[in-house]
Design goal:
With about 280 residues, the protein is α/β, with parallel strands linked by helices. It is built from 7 helices and 11 strands. Strands 1, 2, 4, 6, 7, 8 and 11 form a 7-stranded mixed beta sheet that branches. The protein has a two-stranded parallel sheet with strand order 3-5. A two-stranded antiparallel ribbon has the order 9-10. The chain is globular. The protein has 2 domains: about 5-180 and about 270-275, Flavodoxin domain (Rossmann fold); about 200-250, Alpha-Beta Plaits (2-Layer Sandwich), CATH 3.30.70.20. It has helices at about 15-30, 75-80, 105-115, 140-160, 210-215, 235-240, 250-265; strands spanning about 5-10, 35-40, 50, 55-65, 80-85, 90-95, 115-120, 120-125, 200, 245-250, 270-275.
Amino acid sequence: MVVKTVWAVYFSGTGTTEKVVTCVAKTTAAILGAEFRAYSYSPPQSRTEELHFTPDDLVVFGAPVYAGRVPNLLLPYLKEKVKGHGALAVPISLFGNRNFDDGLIELRNILEEDGFHTVTAGAFVGEHSFSTILGAGRPDSDDMDLAEALGLETAKKVRGLTQPPAAPVSVAGCEPLRPYYTPRDRHGNPINILKVKPNTDTEKCTQCGLCAELCPMGSISREDVSQVPGVCIKCCACVKKCPEGAKYYDDEGYLYHQHELEEVYARRADVELFL
């Protein structure tokens, strides 16, 4: 099959999904001699219009894994406004060193339902949004070597196709999809952090407005960035990218869950490629 454009399409609060998806897409485009283009659906305004592709496109489509699934607040956009029209696709899940659970198979299924033909896929590791030590520094050089390898194998597979694949790429995960992962305390009781929002150290904050600009939900007030009237998905873009270190979480349940993840999942999780 002839591919004219390879797209990197991603939601990436702190840049880890963007890094992997862009690498895979650029590698694939270079080998196929195709144009490279990128589209971030991280900003709220980017998810207001439909996104259309054609059979001449190959789309490396990335989404982070939250609680073992595609983030639920992204589902309306992904299911209703992304249109494949026969384009090829490479679903990419980015997980924070715990497990990608059903995040990749869910993303693959959504893309297939949107009119894409999935050809390869990958589950990559990034530094956990809650932490600076869980998956610290990932994706690292070894991970990026695997991203390049996925791009190479994707290009090889596409070159060998005379028509779109009859079946979706086979990936790990369960069907029907399992419920979202629920954090629990030491007694086994569920910890609900859905309504937890970041705080602001007013002595450090300069009201530069960067956190409001970066928030993918548009939830931080631009007039007073210490106020978060909208929903928080805990992507931690505001925490990790604040130049003054003024954003933080202090909810007891949130911090317990963070420290539990850092203790239980301290090992190096593996990247998985599906060809």
